[in-house]
Amino acid sequence: MRKGTPRGATEPSGAIIALGVAEAPMPGEHESGDLYLLQPSLNGVLLAVVDGAGHGTEAAAAARIAAATLEAFARESPIALIRRCHNDLNGTRGVVMTLAFFHHPDRTMTWLGVGNVEGVLFRPSAEGHAPSERVLLRGGLVGHQLPALRASVLPVTPNDILILATDGIRPDFADRLVLDGDLQQIADRILVQHRKETDDALVVVARYLGGDAP
User: Fold this and answer.
1) Complete DSSP assignment for 156-212
2) For position 24, what pLDDT does the model report?
3) Which residue ranges of the chain lie beneath pLDDT 50?
4) Fewest beta carbons within 10 Å, which of 13, 19, 54, 208?
5) Is 5 part of a structural domain of the chain?
6) Which domain holds residue 90?
C-alpha cells in the first residue's frame, strides 16, 4: 500500500502506470481519511482511491481497513474486491471508493465506483488530452449499504491519463483541465486550484505506460 505524496511521477522499469499524487487533510485534522493504493498483481495493476466517511481518526481507520483488504486480494476482480471490503468494514464508518484495474495482456482497464470518488479518463488527441470517459458512480457506502455492482471495461493505449479525486476536490476539476507538466505537477495544480476546505482531499494522476504485453 502506498499512502502519501510521491514527489514526481513513479516510472520503475517494467511499470504499467506512472503516478503523481497530491493530498491534504481537512484543516484542523492531523490525519487524512483519504488513501490510495497501487498494487501489482499477476496480470496487471490495481489502482484504488478510498475515502473514509467523514474525516478524522475514525475515517482514517475505515480507509486503512479497506486499503489492507484491497492490497491482500488485489488479484481478484474489482466487484469481488468491493464485496470483500463491504464485509470487512462492518462496524466502521464505511468508505466510498473507486477502483481501476489495468489488465496488461489485453490492454484494458476495468473500473467502477461506489460513492463519490470521481474518475476521469483522458485520451491523447491532436490538441492534447481530452476527457473521454467518466466512471459510473453508484450511490452507496461500502460497509453499510452496497448498491448493485457493475464494472465497465475500456481499452487503454499508451499515454492515456486517468485522474481519480475524492470529494475534497471540486468535481469540475476536469473542465478545461490542461495536462501540461509532469504528473506530480498536474496533481499539485488540481489540489491547489480545486480543493475544498471542508473535507480531506486526494487526487491521483496516472499515466498508462503500455509496453509490450506478455
Assistant:
1) --TT-EEEEE-TTB-GGGGTT----S-HHHHHHHHHHHHB-SSS-EEEEEEEE----
2) 94
3) 1-13, 212-214
4) 13
5) no
6) 17-208
